[in-house]
TrEMBL record:
GO terms for molecular function: ATP binding; UDP-N-acetylmuramoylalanine-D-glutamate ligase activity. GO terms for cellular component: cytoplasm. It is found in: Cytoplasm. This is UDP-N-acetylmuramoylalanine--D-glutamate ligase. PANTHER family: UDP-N-ACETYLMURAMOYLALANINE--D-GLUTAMATE LIGASE. Its EC number is 6.3.2.9. It comes from the Bacteria. InterPro entries: Mur-like_cat_sf, Mur_ligase_C, Mur_ligase_C_dom_sf, Mur_ligase_cen, MurD. Cell wall formation. Catalyzes the addition of glutamate to the nucleotide precursor UDP-N-acetylmuramoyl-L-alanine (UMA). It comes from Lacticaseibacillus manihotivorans DSM 13343 = JCM 12514. Belongs to the MurCDEF family.
Length: 454
């Protein structure tokens, strides 16, 4: 870790906790900053705030007092999920206080190489694959960021010859200043988080911040199957490395005659991969590009792709009950992600769907549901929208309270040979703190069902 003096004896406000806030606060404290943490959760129920207070860090909990910013703070480290419309953030902006997110702080103290991945879908799988490929080849790589491992914790232990493979969300990218990955990856861009960003233009701009500090000595890996990428590439100073499942002209990483190839060299047959779906071919092509640019040999790439069975909550196989295979795709928080999951299977599907209502249309699901799904179980704020999808697709559906109660209903509606798929097409925040907990509840319910069927 670099012992930077940027924050020494400087007043820094960490706004919002969670894993990123806790680790940022501790790192800043180690760097000699005068840290104040402000979190809206009440202190008695806030174990993270209690732990920081025990470390000697000042904590203010239960609300966000705007007047706190009158105390001459010189920096703010903002939880990525807190929007810039928040009154605390707006006041900090009006006072000219620099606002960053935790990955930026991590990068400032890091002495490692950085590979950074973003995109609407596929970024966690791609990040995981890159890290596995590098480690398989004998490099030392650490996954970090939005994947669930705070970058500020990783940056403190990763050495100068190591690689930080960071998944970065659009929320996190809005708060970077100097973060400069040698290799950046943009898996795709669809409509997502528009309630936070305001419109698609701002969302796309946030994603493109991943390349804003790159130079001609760096690489920017982009999905060439999406025409929008061809124009966005013009904004980057880095060397563009296109990947394409459709073998679009100019793609360096491509699917050619059923083979995963890089610069025309065959690496392995795509159908030898363990993870299902055409979307995972795209994720693999992006990861292969990053790995090859990092000097990884073909044998290491093949070893990873032939044994990797997927990331938890992302079309994750759970178990088989009486010839019905159950898959947990709780990470599918939008229509595009759910569409990818539905398209990943050739078998008939019983679909569990529903969640936070962001007032977005679900109509794009109708043709997919009609073609691949023979029954639906709906829940959450978007249950009525999902019911309408089922009605327009001409398939039966049942509405229930939540994921847990949906599992036995989905099983009852299934037939031998079916896929029972949780792919909500909506965020989890109407009923759960995050999609991980929603997925865990589904897994527990499936395992309980399996026990009862023995």
């Amino acid at each position: 870790m670099l012992e930077i003096k940027t924050y020494q004896n400087k007043k820094v406000l960490v706004l919002g906790l969670g894993m990123s806030g806790v680790n940022a606060a501790r790192l800043l404290n180690k760097l000699g900053a005068l840290v104040t943490v402000n979190d809206k959760q009440k202190f008695d129920d806030n174990k993270q705030a209690q732990a920081l207070l025990a470390d000697g860090i000042k904590v203010i909990t239960g609300y966000h007092p705007v007047e706190l910013l009158d105390e001459n703070f010189e920096y703010m480290v903002k939880n990525p999920g807190i929007p810039y419309s928040n009154p605390m953030v707006q006041k900090a902006q009006s006072l000219g206080i620099p606002i960053i997110t935790e990955p930026e702080l991590a990068y400032q103290v890091s002495q490692s190489h950085w590979i950074a991945t973003t995109g609407s879908n596929g970024k966690t799988t791609t990040t995981t694959l890159i890290g596995l490929m590098l480690n398989e080849a004998g490099h030392k790589a650490y996954d970090a960021g939005n994947i669930g491992i705070p970058a500020s914790a990783v940056a403190q232990k990763a050495g100068k010859d190591d690689t930080v493979v960071a998944e970065l969300s659009s929320f996190q990218l809005c708060g970077i200043k100097t973060l400069h990955p040698h290799i950046a990856v943009l898996t795709n861009i669809y409509e997502a988080h528009l309630d936070w960003h305001g419109d698609r233009e701002h969302y796309v701009a946030a994603k493109m911040r991943i390349t804003m500090n790159q130079t001609p000595d760096d690489y920017f890996i982009m999905n060439w199957d999406l025409p929008e990428m061809h124009e966005l590439a013009k904004q980057s100073k880095a060397q563009i490395v296109p990947f394409s499942r459709k073998n679009i002209a100019g793609a360096r990483s491509a699917l050619i005659d059923g083979w995963l190839c890089f610069d025309g060299e065959r690496i392995m047959k795509a159908d030898a991969m363990q993870i299902p779906g055409t979307h995972n071919i795209e994720n693999a092509l992006a990861a292969i590009a990053a790995a090859k640019l990092s000097g990884v040999d073909n044998a290491s790439i093949v070893a990873v792709l032939t044994r990797f069975t997927g990331v938890k909550h992302r079309i994750q196989y759970v178990t088989t009950i009486n010839d019905r295979k159950f898959y947990n795709d709780s990470k599918a928080t939008n229509v595009e992600a759910a569409s990818v999951a539905i398209n990943a299977f050739t078998q008939p599907i019983v679909l569990l769907a529903g969640g936070l209502d962001r007032h977005l249309s679900m109509d794009d699901l109708i043709p997919l549901v009609k073609a691949h799904v023979h029954a639906m179980v709906t829940f959450g704020e978007t249950a009525e929208l999902m019911n309408a999808v089922a009605e327009k697709a001409g398939i039966p559906y049942q509405q229930t309270e939540n994921v847990k109660t949906a599992v036995p209903l989905a099983y009852a509606a299934s037939k031998p040979g079916d896929i029972v798929l949780l792919s909500p097409a909506a965020a989890s925040w109407d009923q759960f703190p995050n999609f991980e907990i929603r997925g865990d509840v589904f897994i527990d319910a499936v395992n309980a069902l399996a026990e009862s069927e023995e």
